[in-house]
Every structure is written in structure tokens, then in C-alpha cells.
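Hey Z.,

So I finally got round to the zinc ion thing we talked about over coffee. Here's the setup:
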Amino acid sequence: MIHTDTSHKPSRIIILGSGTSTGVPVIGCDCQVCRSTDPRDKRMRASALVEVDGQRLLIDCGPDFRRQFLDIAPLRPDAILLTHIHYDHVGGIDDLRPLTFPDPLSIYCRPDLAEALRRTMPYCFGSNLYPGVPQIRLVEIDPTRQFLVGSTPVIPLPVMHHDLPIIGFRIGNFAYITDAKTVPPSTMSLLHGVDTIVVNALRLTPHHSHFSLSEAMNFISAVNPRRAFLTHISHQMPSHACLSAILPPGVFPAADGLVITP
Ligand SMILES: [Zn+2]
Ligand SMILES: [Zn+2]
Ligand SMILES: [Zn+2]
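And the result:
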């Protein structure tokens, strides 16, 4: 049983990306959502920056990482937490390069994810490093145990992404879960007392590896936070304005650039 220490509360969370793996609009699509002129319907790949205890923790580093950090310059991450190996969550790691000198950046992830990164980016993690590659320290965490980033306790939240075991994160009274399809009871018990949660909701119809809207709503009801924000949204979800109109009080669609404060 992990003791849920809620004294380290985030002071601010910035949603950097709220879209699914394709982003929204989808290249080549002319559906109503993809043609929307509402800036809230422009969704980069899912990622968030959590400010806590005077440091900034980046959750996921997808292919829009560079654009996202140019948009919020001069903010920069002090450490990175990864949920899983899919490209929409790790595709920006090479772009960390300018932020890894002179001090290396640490990436906290499951051992299988660290192994996959060493395999897919051998020039960054091998014994004979290519000159100028990003200086990244892979910190392998036990997904069943709380770990520290600086002085901040972070609780991994194991969930299933179809048949792939992945993790979300609880930091104080805030929780972030993306790409979940099923959440085991042991993880539900780690969510007691969560005030604010960000959780994935792909679209209205069921999908084999992601929560649909109704599955996300059932999960949110079970957690019962004060407020919930939906992320990893596809173009098959209604537009931001239409989705906002059908959600119950306390549940909101996330949007790129959304700042969540206590
Ligand atoms: Zn994803
Ligand atoms: Zn579309
Ligand atoms: Zn995924």
C-alpha cells in the first residue's frame, strides 16, 4: 500500500497538448471538427507541465514538444515523466537536446520503456555516444512504488492500454492518466482524495485501447474528483464547444494552453 502524500500540491498545470496520436486537425481530413476555426479544436499531441515544489515536471514528450515549448518560452522542464513508448508520447525526446547542456535531464519511466528507448535511440543511450546527442539520464522506476523527483513524491498509476501495461502519475492531489482502457482496482485505491484529474477520452464510440467518453465518465464518477479535464481527444469527438455543452458540472474538455490552478 502506497501512502498517498498530498502535501506536495501542484501550484499550476499547463496542458501543452490535448489531442490523440494524429493531432487535430487530422492531415487530409475535412470533417467539421477538422475544419473548425475555434482555436480550442487545434489539438497537439497529449502532454502536460506540472509545477510543484519549485520545479517543472513534464509528462510525456511527444512530437509536438518543440512547438509546445516555443509557445511557453522561457519555461523549461526540470525532469520528464513518461507514460508509455508510443510515438505520440516519446517522439520529441531528440528535441530535448538544447535543454540538456550543461546539465543532463532525467527521464523517469518503467524499465521496459527505458529498454525500448535504448533500442530505438541507440545513438543517445549507447556506451559510445554520438557527439552532441541529448544528455539524458534514464531513471527506471518501479511502477508499484512511489518515487521522488527532487523532493517531490510521485505515485505511478498502473493502467492498461489494451494489452500494454502503462502508467499515469499522481502528484499530491493531482492525477494524470492518458491512453487508459482499463484501470485495475489497485490503481483506483491510489486515487482516493484526488482533487483534480486529467484523463483520456478519445471519442464517443468504443475503441480497443482508449476510454470512450462514457468510459471516461464512469471512471471519473468512481474517482469523484472536484474537477476533471478530458485529454487525448480525437477529431471523432464533438467540437470543443459542443462537447463542453454535454458534459456534467465539474468535467471539462482540456485545450492546448489551458492553465489549471488550484
Ligand atoms: Zn497516445
Ligand atoms: Zn477530421
Ligand atoms: Zn498510446
